[in-house]
Amino acid sequence: MDDLIVNESIRISLSEIEWVFSRSGGPGGQNVNKVSTRVTLMFNVKNSSGLNEDQKKRIFEKKRHFIDKQGIFRINVDKERSQLRNREIAVERLRAHILDALMEEKDRIPTTVPWVVEERRLKKKKSRSRIKESRKTDIPWECE
């Protein structure tokens, strides 16, 4: 696998991704203490040749909490006991984040409340009002 295929038009070379491996924290006994299974994926969005300027801008806008001041997108994974599996998870997360950032948001078409729903709401309000009004005075009331 030489490239990370994000979609039909976006391919990111795996040579643009840097890896840092460290020991994972938490439970796991001797394996956690000996083996560097934690993976940190670092992808330089600013200098990527697989993305055009518009795509880079959208990624910076939507995923700014993953990107540091140098323009490096960081993802940490220590979910599995295997370093290889954690690398696969990190690459898939990067792919998902890029797809999410580049997805076009549809404009919301404002709708109106159907008249039946509006009538039902007003009827309930009137009924509730009568109940509360009847508590104030000793006048009997009828429900519709």
What does this structure look like?
This protein folds into 2 domains: 3-102, 2-Layer Sandwich (Double Stranded RNA Binding Domain); 116-144, no CATH class. The chain is elongated, with a radius of gyration of 28 Å. The strands form 2 sheets. It has a 3-stranded antiparallel beta sheet, with helices on one face. It has a two-stranded antiparallel sheet with strand order 1-2. The mean pLDDT is 86. Helices cover 40% and strands 17% of the residues. It has helices at 30-34, 53-62, 83-102, 115-136, and strands spanning 3-5, 11-13, 17-22, 38-44, 72-77. The termini are far apart. By secondary structure, the chain is an alpha+beta fold.
Query: Which secondary-structure class do the elements indicate?
Result: alpha+beta
Shape: elongated
Report how far the terminal alpha carbons are from each other.
Answer: 71 Å
Order of helices and strands: EEEHEHEHH
CATH third-level topology of the largest domain: Double Stranded RNA Binding Domain
* Beta-strand segment tally: 5
Number of helices: 4
Question: How confident is the prediction overall: mean pLDDT?
Answer: 86
Topology:
Layout: E1 3-5, E2 11-13, E3 17-22, H1 30-34, E4 38-44, H2 53-62, E5 72-77, H3 83-102, H4 115-136
Antiparallel strand pairs: 1-2, 3-4, 4-5
Salient structural properties:
144 residues; alpha+beta; Double Stranded RNA Binding Domain; 2 domains; three-stranded antiparallel β-sheet; two-stranded antiparallel sheet; 4 helices; 5 strands
